From TrEMBL:
Membrane-spanning intervals of the chain: none
Official protein name in the record: Electron transfer flavoprotein subunit alpha/FixB family protein
SUPFAM superfamilies in UniProt: Adenine nucleotide alpha hydrolases-like, DHS-like NAD/FAD-binding domain
PANTHER family reported for this sequence: ELECTRON TRANSFER FLAVOPROTEIN ALPHA, ELECTRON TRANSFER FLAVOPROTEIN SUBUNIT ALPHA, MITOCHONDRIAL
Protein species of origin: Deinococcus depolymerans
Coiled-coil segments: none
Record domain Electron transfer flavoprotein alpha/beta-subunit N-terminal: where: 2-181
Amino acid sequence: MILIVAEHTAGKLAKATLEMVTAARESGREGPITLLVLGQNVAAVATEAAAVADQVLVADLPQLATYNAEVWAAATTQIAQEGEAHTVIIGGSRSGREYAPRVAVKLDAAYLEDATRLSSNGAALQAQRYTYLARVTETVEADGLVVVTVKPGSFAPAAPAGAAGEQYDVDLTLPAPRVQVTGKSVEKSSRVALTEADVIVTGGRGVGSPENFAKYVEGLADSIGAGVGATRAVVDAGWRPYAEQVGQTGKTVQPKAYIALGVSGAVQHLSGMGKSKNIIAINKDAEAPIFKVADYGIVGDVNEIVPALIEASRK
Ligand code: FAD
């Protein structure tokens, strides 16, 4: 079987999980696509998971209330062994990349990190990943049992296919973790998270200042219910938090619409958003590289165009 460890937050399946299901379907590997849901009070998540998977294994336990690398690695390993999984897919989030190598070691499996495409080459699982500042796309492959992490935003979210999968409760023998989470401060935001957003408005250095970023980028995003992204230039300048950075050293996104305001379109930025369904760029330089990937472009000054767009979208 193909085992996918589901990601979820606040009682909802994360988009990253649907992306991993697509990765599994495209991998060409045989066997049922099985989603493993780890957590506490996860019945609603399991029902959502069943819509896209052949089967769902649910471990609903108090010890799984909070993510912990040792516990997640032990749980995933145990289920992979019991189900004789040949492929284990884990999200390429910070936590996924923390516990996935542990799973590979425990299973004595090959480990492929940060896949942006999956396919089969005979018995081998083939993955593509970026290297050399995303200027090179490398193809790697491994035979037999493989643990693979999938770069978030690299696959389209899976739609339900056929009847809902069966759900099964599973028993786990879990270790007492050596590392304990002793505090958590959650940033409050009413805005949709970048990796979950269908529409993203991103601001680059061309918006001119942090004040303009708030006025134009956040203003337009809020008027259309979009997420907010930023280029590295803007993050490095301290205008915006790193969590909003899109690109090779930030987040990879694949929204239905990506609106780039004053963004030049450097290769490191494009590697994080180039697969967006529709790219709309506003830039005063007609030669800016962003126009090479844009589906729609406006050559002009954000100071003039964005206020008019916000006005129009509010009407
Ligand atoms: P600029 O390149 O300065 O572009 C600003 C644009 O705004 C220009 O095209 C200009 O014509 C336009 N403009 C100016 N004024 C206006 C106006 N009034 N109206 C309309 N348009 C206007 N970058 C990322 O974004 N994400 C990453 O993850 C990332 N990782 C990197 C990793 C490495 C190892 C390296 C070396 C670089 C990385 N970079 C990354 C940086 C990247 O190379 C670029 O420097 C950066 O993306 C440029 O950001 P920008 O488009 O905001 O700024």
